[in-house]
């Protein structure tokens, strides 16, 4: 029942702007964002994935090279990210802490894992002209690219970067600066999504193949456990705080019969509970896969003794 009550509150927050007296005066069309700095990369990735997938399937057959469920996951995640960045939720998120938290959770724990699961690097490579693919492959193997990638794609590094982005951008001075400066706000969104995409990519496709696959799932469980803990602590701090961290973030809180502090507390609950549930659900998925994966063992041949 608490989960249903929370869902009702969220639906009410998203529906109320149509009737709230202060927001009803705003042109509905102006609530949609069209920031080219955010949309251009999104469209480039989407178009490249589509072209690469079509080329792969023409070459290897439908569902080969990139599976149908990966394509479905990519486009679902892509649509969620696009809506989070362009829909009225984005506009409202600049004026209501709760909406901002919903937007960031859609980016980090819904859109990012879906797109990471799709493993877009293959289709992205195939989107290039055939003459350029060998050069692109060599470029990715250059030490100046491969070594930094080896560092940041380590599970500890990816988990740490994801945590740093979450905590740093919720520091009141930096958060307030993001609300005042458009370029910093773009950087906030990009860093949230990029570190989340790296984090989930490492969990799904990071180091560990063959007999190490079970080890990779075990590491993923540990990374998610750490992430649940630190994000839960941050959510609890926001929820239990008796002062407003970022005064300008709750500009429209009164339109929803909330005080700025109540708006912040509701945002903290969203980070503490639903976000924690999603991370925990992912950890249970990896735990299930870890349990059902039988580790490869060398078996000695049976010795038969003559009677």
From TrEMBL:
Coiled-coil residues are: none
Query: Which spans are transmembrane here?
Result: 36-52, 73-91, 106-128, 149-169, 189-206, 218-246, 266-291
State its location(s): Cell membrane
Q: How does it sit in the membrane?
A: Multi-pass membrane protein
Q: What is this protein called?
A: Cytochrome c oxidase assembly protein
- Organism from which the protein derives: Bradyrhizobium diversitatis
Subcellular location, principal = membrane
| InterPro entries, sorted | Caa3_assmbl_CtaG-rel
Which UniProt keyword terms apply here?
Cell membrane, Membrane, Signal, Transmembrane, Transmembrane helix
Q: Where is the signal peptide?
A: 1-20
């Amino acid at each position: 029942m608490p989960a249903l009550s929370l869902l009702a509150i969220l639906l009410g927050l998203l529906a109320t702007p149509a009737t709230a007296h202060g927001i009803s005066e705003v042109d509905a069309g102006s609530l949609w964002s069209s920031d080219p700095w955010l949309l251009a990369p999104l469209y480039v990735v989407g178009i490249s994935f589509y072209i690469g997938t079509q080329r792969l399937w023409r070459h290897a057959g439908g569902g080969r090279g990139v599976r149908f469920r990966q394509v479905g996951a990519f486009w679902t995640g892509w649509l969620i990210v696009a809506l989070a960045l362009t829909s009225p939720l984005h506009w409202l998120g600049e004026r209501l802490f709760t909406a901002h938290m919903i937007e960031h959770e859609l980016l980090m724990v819904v859109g990012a894992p879906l797109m990471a699961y799709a493993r877009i690097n293959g289709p992205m490579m195939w989107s290039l002209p055939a003459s350029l693919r060998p050069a692109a492959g060599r470029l990715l193997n250059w030490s100046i690219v491969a070594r930094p990638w080896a560092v940041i794609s380590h599970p500890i590094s990816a988990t740490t970067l994801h945590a740093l982005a979450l905590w740093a951008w919720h520091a009141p001075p930096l958060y307030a600066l993001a609300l005042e400066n458009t370029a910093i706000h773009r950087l906030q969104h990009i860093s949230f999504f990029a570190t989340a995409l790296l984090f989930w990519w490492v969990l799904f496709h990071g180091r560990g193949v063959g007999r190490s696959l079970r080890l990779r799932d075990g590491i993923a469980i540990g990374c998610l456990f750490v992430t649940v803990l630190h994000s839960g602590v941050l959510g609890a701090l926001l929820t239990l705080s008796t002062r407003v961290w970022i005064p300008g973030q709750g500009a429209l809180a009164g339109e929803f019969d909330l005080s700025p502090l109540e708006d912040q507390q509701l945002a903290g609950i969203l980070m503490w509970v639903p976000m924690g549930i999603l991370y925990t659900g992912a950890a249970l998925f990896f735990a299930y896969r870890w349990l059902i994966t039988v580790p490869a063992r060398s078996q000695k041949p049976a010795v038969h003794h003559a009677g």
